[in-house]
Design goal:
two-stranded antiparallel sheet, globular, 143 residues, 7 strands, mainly beta
Length: 143
Amino acid sequence: MTMRLRPLTWLVILGLLAIAVVAGVRAADEIKVTARLDVDNGRFELMRQVSNEKYDQTEQGADYHIQTIGTNAEAITVIADVGTNGWAFIQNLTTNTDRTVDITLTLRLEAGEVFIGPLHPTNAVTATASSGTVDLECWINER
């Protein structure tokens, strides 16, 4: 799936609008997630929220950085301390409204996990279950 981020648009991967990773002593539930999406467009109102979801972080690896992305496709750098990609938060910090960034990624939603974020306006969104079938709640709004 490819997404187009507009300036100051919050991209939430795997359901993040807010993420807090607890540092220090390792215990259960080091990652806490709250996600909310409201739409009130005069025709209808709808709100979906997941709050206080907690997940274990198997290792303490983390990487925070600001990366300059050019016009050629390039990998988002993740340092060696992150052995397995997990929860992420990505935001386009550009204030120039003519500058967007397309991000191609693969999401994996474990049972009960959520993704909220902007979709690329023309690319198809596809999903494949790891086995059997799964019920996937989808709420996609016009950009």
